[in-house]
Amino acid sequence: MSWTAAGPKATVTPVEMMRAQIEETVAEYGAASARARRAGFDGVEVAANGTFLIAQFLNPRLNRRADAYGTDRGQLLLEVVDAVTAAWDGRRAGVRLSPYWTVDDTSPRARRAGYPYTADEATLAAYDALVAELATRPLAYLHLRGRAVAGPGAVPDFEEFARYRKLFDGALVANHGFGRVSGNAVVEAGIADAVSFGRPFIANPDLVARFALGHAVARGDESTHYGGGARGYVDYPIWAGC
Fold first, then answer.
1. CA 166 to CA 204: how far, in whole Å?
2. Per DSSP, what are the bridge partners of residue 43?
3. Using an 8 Å Cβ cutoff, are 55 and 45 in contact?
4. What is the pLDDT of residues 155-208, one digit of tens each?
5. What's the whole-model pTM score?
6. Can you tell me the distance from the alpha carbon of 141 to that of 94, in angstroms, rounded to the nearest whole number?
7. What is the 3-state secondary structure (H, E, C) of 181-222?
8. In Å, how far are 26, 53, 78, 96, 227 from 131, measured between CA atoms?
9. Are β-strands 93-97 and 43-48 bridged in parallel, bridged antiparallel, or unpaired?
10. What string of pLDDT tens digits covers the 242 residues of the chain?
């Protein structure tokens, strides 16, 4: 089992956290990690991606603090990582980052509102320094989400992951837009140690078997996502030969 510590999502009107609130939040991450271990989990993952709290601190367009958490936007994540890893013996905690998260990863409504995430060179350079620092921590792996692919059949840009492969010598997991062929290719190239799949599992509860047997992968109905019901989540058929 594994557990992802994502933290609070973005609010409509962000309010700067007080130092005491930050310290309390870091302690909560550590406590949650310890509880996960006592509950029998194999490890935990700290989610610093998307619109969650830590990702907000990493974003130069959202984090305009004048204190240490603003001058070093990665400080909160590093403190959380230290608190989470302290609860385990060995490398049992991973970190998920989305340095390439942009307006293309959001809903049409967020795009119209002027979504403030842009994977420009300054942002990516800041992630370079952060990943290098994470490499000094006792992490089980670094989980990287790549840029949104252009459309069906498009292949992720391996160089997006190779950039951080050079900075992190631990296990690296690549994510976003991969299929069986591209997933095998990025591992065989030595750029990633593994590939994670999220959305394909919705329409393919037998995804692993389909990959192993070379069967076609079904496409999901995105209009049913986040609908709150069972349709489009648990009603996809399993391939007859699996």
1. 33
2. 2
3. no
4. 899 999 999 999 999 999 999 999 999 999 999 999 999 999 998 999 999 999
5. 0.87
6. 5
7. HHHHHHHHCCCCCEEECCCHHHHCCCHHHHHHHCCCCCCCCH
8. 19, 18, 10, 11, 35
9. parallel
10. 444 455 545 444 568 899 999 999 999 999 999 999 999 999 999 998 877 899 989 988 889 999 999 999 999 999 999 999 999 999 999 999 999 987 666 666 656 666 667 788 888 999 999 999 999 999 999 999 998 887 767 889 999 999 999 999 999 999 999 999 999 999 999 999 999 999 899 999 999 999 999 999 988 888 887 777 888 888 888 877 65
Length of the chain: 242
Could you tell me if 73 and 126 are in contact, meaning their C-beta atoms sit under 8 angstroms apart?
yes
Structure tokens given for 62 = 């959202």
Q: 59 and 116 in contact (C-beta within 8 Å)?
A: yes
Where does the chain have alpha helices with state H? 19-38, 53-58, 68-71, 75-85, 108-112, 121-134, 158-165, 180-188, 200-203, 207-213
Within 10 Å of residue 52's Cβ, how many Cβ atoms?
20
What span, in angstroms and rounded, lies between the C-alpha atoms of 173 and 183?
Answer: 10
- Would you say 135 and 170 are in contact if contact means Cβ atoms under 8 Å apart? yes
Residue for token digits 């990287």?
A: 144
Phi, psi of 46 (to 5 degrees): -95, 120
Phi and psi for 193 in degrees, rounded to 5?
Answer: -95, -20
